């Protein structure tokens, strides 16, 4: 049977947010021999947390959108469970988050892409801005995308 997926918002400090943190830790921190401190998470209350789920509600990916200004929102912590990578799930979640941000009134998304993920964001029409820099001990590039305005309220 073919899998179906859906994306939706996750409330901060809920069991779903804890589930998202497990995925983030596995995919984004463990490979760097790092882990999250409570302080890393506490300041995320002002961000939009999104997840992608199987039809049985198993979470298989997550990301965060943090407002930077009235116009710009930052995409952070993009992580798809390893067994689901390379199957279009990241693309689905990023597209959903772009629509979500546009509906909130943001006109662009920026992000810090690990070098290994730059081709993923390029394939989704994000552009590189500036030079390589180091974050969490690895090289990154700043990328951005202008969002199409939406007529929906
Ligand atoms: C990077 C990541 C979010 C991408 O999600 P994904 O579900 O694996 O990617 P998708 O299958 O949706 O790929 C979408 C497109 O990007 C391309 N793509 C994805 N990863 C790629 C890579 N490393 N190199 C080249 N192209 C890539 C795919 O070929 C696909 O292109 P298509 O639409 O033309 O077929 C996911 O692999 C992941 O969680 N990686 C580890 C954590 C990470 O690096 N997070 C980002 C931190 S900045």
Topology:
Elements: E1 5-10, H1 15-29, H2 38-42, E2 48-54, E3 59-67, E4 72-80, H3 89-103, E5 108-114, H4 118-123, E6 127-135, E7 138-146
Parallel strand pairs: 4-5
Antiparallel strand pairs: 1-2, 2-3, 3-4, 5-7, 6-7
The structure holds coenzyme A.
Coenzyme A is lined by residues 27-28, 78-80, 85-91, 113-114, 116-117, 119-120, 123.
List keywords for this structure.
153 residues; 27% helix; alpha+beta; seven-stranded mixed sheet; Aminopeptidase; binds coenzyme A; 7 strands; globular
Structure description:
With 153 residues, the chain is of the alpha+beta class. The chain has a single domain, classed as Aminopeptidase (3-Layer(aba) Sandwich), CATH 3.40.630.30. It is built from 4 helices and 7 strands. The protein has a 7-stranded mixed beta sheet, with helices on both faces. The longest helix is centred in the first third of the chain and has 15 residues, at 15-29. The chain is globular and about 40 Å long. The mean pLDDT is 95. It binds coenzyme A (COA). Residues 27-28, 78-80, 85-91, 113-114, 116-117, 119-120, 123 line the site of coenzyme A (COA).
Distance between the termini: 36 Å
CATH architecture: 3-Layer(aba) Sandwich
H/E topology pattern: EHHEEEHEHEE
The CATH superfamily appears as Gcn5-related N-acetyltransferase (GNAT)
Average pLDDT works out at 95
Classify the beta-strand content into a percent band.
35-45%
Main sheet record: 7 strands, mixed
Q: Ions, cofactors, ligands: which are bound?
A: coenzyme A
Do you know the CATH topology? Aminopeptidase
Low-confidence sequence ranges: none
Q: How helical, in percent, are the residues? A: 25-40%
Q: State the helix count.
A: 4
- Backbone shape: globular
Which CATH class?
Answer: Alpha Beta
Strand order, biggest sheet? Answer: 1-2-3-4-5-7-6
Provide the gyration radius in Å: 15 Å
């Amino acid at each position: 049977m073919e899998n179906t997926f859906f994306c939706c918002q996750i409330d901060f400090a809920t069991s779903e947010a804890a589930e998202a943190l497990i995925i983030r830790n596995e995919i984004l921190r463990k490979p760097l021999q790092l882990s999250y401190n409570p302080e890393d998470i506490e300041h995320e209350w002002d961000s939009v947390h999104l997840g992608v789920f199987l039809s049985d509600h198993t979470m298989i990916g997550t990301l965060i959108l943090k407002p930077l200004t009235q116009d710009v929102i930052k995409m952070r912590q993009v992580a798809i469970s390893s067994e689901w990578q390379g199957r279009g799930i990241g693309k689905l979640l990023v597209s959903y988050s772009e629509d979500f941000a546009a509906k909130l009134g943001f006109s662009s998304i920026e992000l810090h892409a690990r070098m290994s993920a730059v081709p993923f964001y390029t394939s989704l029409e994000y552009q590189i801005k500036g030079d390589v820099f180091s974050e969490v001990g690895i090289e990154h590039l700043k990328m951005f995308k202008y969002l199409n305005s939406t007529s929906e309220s």
